[in-house]
């Protein structure tokens, strides 16, 4: 369920998405408000779950994770036990950055970061040893052309 965001909320969220380490003074100055209302808004947005956390974004290549694979998974099993094993397997693997259940011919897609293709093969072998998968198609990203964690902040419908 979404919550209503006013223009000041959206300005604050925009600033925080770009750099949440900025001081309250900097944020207030950029959004054109004083510190106390900005601090209260940030607290309100955290309490409402709009702001889920604050993290440091790392450059994967600078820490040796040069290969990004997208893994398309089809399964012939859709029962609760299989799903629990699958969720457990992907949640235990730090290589899995994202996992989505899809509509259409493909059941799941994973975004996997590893140092190299050999490490991906190790990941793949570990995954299929934990859960039965009907079909896996893996694609290696040759170039990351856009990557952002910033969400678009649409204006409220009027």
Automatic annotation (TrEMBL):
> What keywords tag this UniProt record?
DNA-binding, Transcription, Transcription regulation
Coiled-coil positions are: none
**GO BP terms, alphabetized:** regulation of DNA-templated transcription; response to amino acid
Residue ranges of every copy of the HTH asnC-type domain listed in the record: 5-66
Task: Extract the CDD domains matched here.
Answer: HTH_ARSR
Q: What GO molecular function annotation could you give as one example from this UniProt entry?
A: sequence-specific DNA binding
The record's listing under SMART domains reads: HTH_ASNC
Q: Name one GO cellular component term.
A: cytosol
What the entry lists under PROSITE patterns is as follows: HTH_ASNC_2
InterPro entries, per database record: ArsR-like_HTH (IPR011991), AsnC-type_HTH_dom (IPR000485), Dimeric_a/b-barrel (IPR011008), Tscrpt_reg_AsnC-like (IPR019888), Tscrpt_reg_AsnC/Lrp_C (IPR019887), WH-like_DNA-bd_sf (IPR036388), WH_DNA-bd_sf (IPR036390)
Question: Record's superkingdom?
Answer: Bacteria
* PANTHER family attached to this UniProt entry: DNA-BINDING TRANSCRIPTIONAL ACTIVATOR DECR, LEUCINE-RESPONSIVE REGULATORY PROTEIN
Protein name from the UniProt record: Lrp/AsnC family transcriptional regulator
Phylogenetic placement of the source organism: Bacteria, Pseudomonadati, Pseudomonadota, Alphaproteobacteria, Rhodobacterales
């Amino acid at each position: 369920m979404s919550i209503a965001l006013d223009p000041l909320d959206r300005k604050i969220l925009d600033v925080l998405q770009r750099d949440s380490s900025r001081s309250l003074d900097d944020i207030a100055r950029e959004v054109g408000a004083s510190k106390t209302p900005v601090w209260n808004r940030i607290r309100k947005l955290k309490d409402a779950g709009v702001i889920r956390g604050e993290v440091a974004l790392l450059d994967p290549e600078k820490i040796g994770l040069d290969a990004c694979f997208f893994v398309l998974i089809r399964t012939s099993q859709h029962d609760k036990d299989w799903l629990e094993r699958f969720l457990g397997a992907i949640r235990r693997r730090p290589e899995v950055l994202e996992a989505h259940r899809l509509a259409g011919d493909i059941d799941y897609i994973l975004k996997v970061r590893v140092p190299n293709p050999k490490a991906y093969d190790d990941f793949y072998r570990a995954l299929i040893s934990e859960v039965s998968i009907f079909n896996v198609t893996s694609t290696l990203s040759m170039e990351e052309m856009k990557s952002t964690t910033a969400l678009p902040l649409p204006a409220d419908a009027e």
